[in-house]
Amino acid sequence: MSQPGQSRALVIVNTHFSSSDGDVVFGTRRGARREAEQLSRILSRLNYAVKLMHNQTAKEIEALYQQESCCQHGEYFVSIISSHGEEGVVFGCDSEPVKLTQIFQILSSGKCPVLTKIPKIFFIQACRGGELDQGVVVECDGGEPEPSCLSGLFSIPPQTVVMFACSPGYVAFLNILGSMFLQALRKVLEGEERHLALHRLLTRINGEVALRCQARGTYEGCKEMPCFVTNLLQEVFPFS
């Protein structure tokens, strides 16, 4: 039960998928449930009222955000979505797509005045296409090589931050131990970096995934480059 003025977090993780005729369309996402539960516990320790939901259909996902639009919120709203996806959408466990812009608009000031001034922070662990990122070698005079990423722009409501596991058009990796992206988020939230301003914290996650993570097995050596979009007007410290 949330306390008055307590920040809220909604974590949605889909691991098993089927279609309306019962066919299996997408593969099982092994490792996703465990890391979602880990992140939920961390957010709870950071004084968020956390709602963790497993295997939600497209309509159920939209309904969860409709419910959040009616709740009393504290300083921040955080949401983590872990599912299959493609550019601009995530999939419900019924293999039906949910447009991310639809989710964002549910919480926009026009439809949810209570969240107008509250920063809304989304972490999206899902593929955005089928391309594999082979990585690049960057030569520099000194220090660590810095990755670069240009994210496609799309409409997000005011006071919103969206961080994606990968760049537009690319796959996001997951194995039985979890995903590169959400494991990097977990590492940051458990360390001293959690006290940083949000834009600096997200940049740390970029660096952790881009410079220290790469795929194994079938996709040996492939890389991943997270990126984020923000229209916040001030520095915020949601995890400090």
From TrEMBL:
InterPro entries: Caspase-like_dom_sf, Caspase-related_regulators, Pept_C14_caspase, Pept_C14_p10, Pept_C14_p20, Pept_C14A. Belongs to the peptidase C14A family. Residues 178-240 form the Caspase family p10 domain. It comes from Rhynochetos jubatus. Gene3D superfamilies: 3.40.50.1460. Signal peptide: none annotated. Pfam families: Peptidase_C14. GO terms for biological process: proteolysis. Coiled coil: none annotated. One of its GO terms (molecular function) is cysteine-type endopeptidase activity. Transmembrane segments: none annotated. Residues 9-131 form the Caspase family p20 domain. This is CASP3 protein.
